[in-house]
Design goal:
The complex is a heterodimer of chains A (245) and B (357). Chain A has 245 residues and is mostly beta strands. The chains are: A mainly beta (245), B mainly alpha (357).
């Protein structure tokens, strides 16, 4: 090579140019907590498209079941609380991977898990979101802006609507119609640091909880309002801790 | 072939350049556009900090606005039902035509001065301008398309990938960016150059009927059609009988409150001469029939605005003067502004003609 200086200068330029494409360093996570959601109808695991019987004795087939969870808070044995950066997850029975979520947590013992079932009102009024909150996920009302916090669809023999269908799209974020619900779950005593929590969601509670909701009377809920609030009061109590690892 | 030293040097320069080009997201610098608030107007409600206006964003928004691919069969763009010569309403149509020979359920309003509007649709159901296009795109009787399909179609087009990169820094195409780009176009549809505005700026003066009409307007209309936007963006029942086919409850559909029954958004009167037919379902084909409604045909019910307990008294003389004034709200430079024109439309490059000169 007759022009080593040229070559060196140009090589430096090439490398600096390429360097600008490198992402910044990723800091090592403090710890990971896996949350695994299990959907049930009473005691039995939910199987989409399969006939089952709900707690009120109705023969139903569930075809869709999904809901948002967000705003996790964790409390340790000394009562200290911390909140990871807000993240939104769409838990969808149809997509098994969506039922396992991983959250970066501080490496301490967890005694209580809190989260919001639904999407906070701020995200309902600030335009189009991305990721799990993208309106194309089918969990957003375009005619009456706002998220569907939870959705259940299926068929029931006693449903009087076409095809004996029932469709429950539960949403509404305005004062008095807010269907997002704070959930608190206490972890049973355990000496080990918590790495994995299995959470059960019982669909029966949608029909039979604070309110009894008769499929034959109200097979459809498609807008914010009194009925949506009753479903929300009901699904607020659908979660329980199944096991901790 | 002998490779010379110069060729080597050139090759290396090219390589060096390639490294910089590939890393160009750090050098993403779209050309900003300053949003001008006309003198005396309130502050816009749109949060520009979340979606800064740029030349590139506007260009992308305009292409999307006029692209039929946003609809299921490719034949309906936003611009199909929002036509510039009608101040972006559907000109001369009570209801617009959608996919599969469907009618819309409401009259397509003109689109302008949207940066000042908080809620959208006649019932105010949509709470952000970015979200507004999602409703017509996905409605079965309008553009009837899914957001997934729209994104798939756009992603397949090299031109769009380029435009999204120019506007947002990379080629990602998602719902949010489509909404933001469309907003960039719609936000710049500012209509503030009517004869009325020129009179206010001291550049023109009303002729007598216009001046008299303005006085009557201030006395009888301005409490709802408030200057300078000519609406207070409230929802009111002006005594329109419910259509027995559409059965449209208006604002009540959104709030679930019976006191909001048959209330609809107060529309702006800017460009009113061009935005016929009038009313949420386009039932009035002329200004005259609107006046007749206010003075004679109104159906006063429990939720009718208290202002109209005794309807609205208007003499033939007042209607004549009011009409003269309302025509001064036509902003012909806006109606012909080539920046907003459909691509390929016969927009001569001459400056817009103002019929009031």
């Amino acid at each position: 090579m007759k022009y080593p200086v040229y070559t060196l200068v140009l090589l430096t330029l090439i490398l600096t140019g390429l360097n600008f494409r490198q992402p910044g360093p990723i800091t090592a996570p403090a710890g990971k907590l896996r949350l695994v959601f299990h959907h049930q109808v009473g005691k039995d695991p939910l199987a989409l498209g399969t006939l089952c019987r709900n707690g009120l004795g109705d023969r139903i087939t569930i075809e869709r079941f999904k809901y948002y969870v967000s705003h996790f808070t964790f409390t340790d044995s000394k009562g200290r609380q911390w909140k990871p950066d807000p993240q939104y997850f769409l838990i969808d029975e149809e997509i098994p991977d969506s039922k396992i979520i991983t959250i970066q947590v501080q490496d301490i013992d967890i005694r209580q898990i809190g989260f919001l079932l639904g999407v906070d009102s701020a995200k309902n009024v600030s335009g189009i979101q991305t990721g799990a909150l993208d309106p194309l996920k089918g969990m957003f009302w375009t005619w009456n802006s706002g998220y569907i916090m939870a959705k259940m669809e299926g068929t029931a023999e006693r449903s009087p609507s076409p095809g004996h269908r029932f469709t429950y799209h539960i949403g509404g974020f305005r004062f008095g119609m807010n269907t997002a619900r704070e959930i608190r779950l206490t972890i049973p005593q355990t000496s080990q640091p918590v790495r994995e929590v299995h959470i059960a969601a019982d669909i029966d509670r949608w029909f039979n909880g604070s309110w009894q909701i008769d499929l034959a009377e109200t097979p459809v809920c498609h807008s914010p309002g009194v009925l949506a609030m009753r479903f929300a009061d009901n699904y607020q109590n659908m979660f329980s801790i199944q096991s901790v690892h | 072939m002998r490779i010379t030293k110069n060729t080597w040097v050139l090759l290396l320069i090219l390589l060096a350049g390639a490294g910089w080009v590939a890393g160009d997201s750090a050098y993403f610098r779209p050309k900003p556009i300053a949003f001008k608030v006309p003198k005396g107007w309130p502050r816009p409600v749109y949060d520009f900090s979340k979606n800064p206006l740029t030349e590139e964003g506007f260009a992308l928004g305009k292409k999307l606005f006029y692209d039929g691919r946003l609809s299921k069969d490719g034949s309906f763009s936003c611009g199909t039902c929002h036509q510039q010569f009608g101040a972006f309403n559907t000109y001369d149509h009570s209801l617009s035509h959608g996919f599969n020979n469907a009618f819309t359920t409401r009259n397509a309003p003109g689109l302008f001065n949207l940066a000042w509007q908080k809620d959208f649709m006649w019932d105010g159901g949509i709470n952000h301008l970015d979200l507004q296009p999602l409703a017509p795109i996905t409605a079965e009787n309008e553009m009837a398309e899914t957001l997934e399909n729209v994104i798939t179609k756009l992603k397949a087009d090299k031109e769009y990938r380029k435009l999204f990169k120019a506007a947002f820094g990379d080629e990602t195409i998602n719902t949010q960016r489509i909404g933001k780009a469309l907003s960039q176009f719609m936000l710049q549809l500012v209509s503030s150059n009517s004869k009325y505005d020129k009179v206010k700026r001291g550049e023109a003066s009303f002729i007598l009927p216009e001046q008299l009409g303005y006085q009557i307007f201030l006395q009888k209309c301005a409490s709802c059609h408030t200057e300078p936007l000519f609406t207070d963006y409230s929802y009111r029942n002006i005594g329109l009988k419910m259509d027995d086919v559409l059965k449209d409850p208006g604002r009540m559909r959104i709030t679930n409150r019976s006191e909001d029954s048959l209330k609809f958004k107060v529309p702006s009167l800017r460009n009113v001469a061009m935005t016929f037919p009038y009313g949420h379902d386009g039932r009035f084909f002329s200004l005259m029939s609107v006046f007749e409604h206010y003075r004679k045909n109104m159906v006063v019910s429990a939720t009718t605005d208290p202002l109209f307990r005794n309807k609205l008294a208007l003499s033939n003389y007042e209607i004549g003067q009011l009409t003269a004034f309302l025509y001064t709200l036509t902003d012909s430079s806006f109606l012909k502004d080539p920046r907003f024109a459909a691509p390929g439309a016969n927009n001569n490059t001459k400056p817009p003609i103002d019929i009031h000169r």
